Amino acid sequence: MKRSIQDTQIVFIGSGNLATNLAKVLYRRGFRIMQVYSRTEIHARQLADAVEAEWTDSLDSVSLSGEIYFVSLTDTAFVQLLPQLVKGREDKLFIHTAGSIPLDVWKGQANRYGVVYPMQTFSKQVEVDFSQIPIFIEASNTEDHDLMKGIAQILSQKVYDATSEQRKILHLAAVFTCNFSNHMYALAAELLNKYDLPFDVMLPLIDETARKVHQLAPSLTQTGPAARNDEEVMNAHIQMLQKEPSLQELYKLISRSIHDLK
Question: In the structure, what pLDDT confidence band is assigned to residue 262 with cuts at 50, 70 and 90?
Fold first, then answer.
């Protein structure tokens, strides 16, 4: 009988936002997560309990019998721990999940390696619909590429090949699209709070702004005083931000960028 792809023995190195969401969706799709490592015991235990796995907070206790090792750590921790992670497991398949780390970081360490990069913002507290998340893959050989693609297609309807260079651009674009946008929400929330106004009133605006770019190019949906070069309104806003010099400079910089792009 042919062995199911879900029977693959998986070890997770890391228990952060992405690792938590990825491990849980693999578990729900029938994959066997045999162990979770995190340097923080409570985090290792929480994720392991959620996916019926063993846990450890010691790298020396990471299992040698896994078939696939998903590594989802901060970039700094990843580079520091890589040699220790691979030692004794050189012929196992190592997969990292980072947008910013190239495929060949494994070169000279592991014999089989790849990248599975789900491009989405993740939080432990919020479950996402993985079927709609674009997943970008890259592998060191054809056989492992096909294995990784098979796993990714069980999770998502949107699976793509991407080189390390393309993935770096995706990650950079995602920072603008997600992290910078969310920071603007945080600044707006602080501004509203100073005047006893709730952030909730912005939610329909946020939703409509996001909805429109499903139908039109972002450059075509841009509105506001900078887009129409309304200097009177912009100058009034700048004056209102006189006691907020950092916001004032940010307002000028972004307004100039909007105007230049238009």
Answer: confident
Same domain flag for 33 and 53: yes
Residue 39 CB burial class (10 angstroms; 0-12, 13-18, ≥19): middle
The domain in which residue 211 lies consists of 168-261
pLDDT digits (tens, 9 = 90+) for 1-15: 567 888 889 999 999
| Together in a domain, 84 and 212 | no
pLDDT band at 74 (very low <50, low <70, confident <90, very high): confident
DSSP 135-181: EEEEESSHHHHHHHHHHHHHH-S-EEE--HHHHHHHHHHHIIIIIIH
Q: Same domain, yes or no, for 33 and 146?
A: yes
At 72 the pLDDT is 94
Is-contact 258 227, C-beta < 8 A? yes
Cα distance between residue 231 and residue 176, in whole Å? 26
